[in-house]
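If your schedule permits, I should be very grateful for your opinion on a structural question. The matter concerns a single protein, recorded as an amino acid sequence and a row of backbone structure tokens. Could you please explain, in whatever detail you think fit, how the structure tokens follow from the sequence? I set the record out below, with my sincere thanks for your time.

——
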Amino acid sequence: MKVEAVVLAGALNDGKLGQVSTAKYEALIPISDRPMVSYVVDALRGAACVERTVVVGPRELAPVLDGTAGVAWVESRGSMVENIKVGIDHSKPVGPVLLVTSDIPLITPEAIDDFVRRCGETAADIYYPIVRRETNERAYPGVKRTYVRLKDGVFTGGNLALIEPEVVPACEVMIERAVSMRKKPLKLSRMLGFKFIFKLLFNRLTLAEIEDRVQRILGFRGVGVESPYPEVGIDVDKPEDLALVEKVLRRP
């Protein structure tokens, strides 16, 4: 499967990372003298499944990407959903779009190709990567992620998704709500109903139940795709995350 990729790179550096970097935007925070977004762009360029990449971000990103083959820049606007729409409009995909955030500098071409390949094994409208806690901790001992304990296992989510373009305008409000609560599993479960909160609290909720409920709410089929690559979910949003990726990327 070949896909168009959209990188979301418009987030201001106004959170905890502001304590360790003066960069105005998270995508431009330097890691080993390179802006964080460049690692993500390089991984997408190296992935066999990616045809082209559109980076949606501030004007300050344009010089960073200028002349990079297969990569276009378009100026970001407002919310994440608005920027997704801008990126999709610019890329004009004929099939599903791979959405990627700019804050996962450990992502690799192999991880991207593996995720898209696994998506091709199931018919759905929205594909979201999940990683088991033991997979994360085996590769990155002590790494702190937000986990959800399901009957199937303990998982964290990734920072990319493969979606059919028509999903975005049809589910704009729900996507905005889910994004705002992405690191708060209990609040997310409230979108699914009381029964799901109860099951989540008692570790009885299954991935299949979540997928079925999401389809009933959105009218589109969404599936969780287990990835053996923890790099899809190692995002940088705290100083300790930045220290981790700097250490990893400096390894010979």
In short: Residues 80-91 form the longest helix (12 residues). The chain has a mean pLDDT of 90. The radius of gyration is 17 Å.
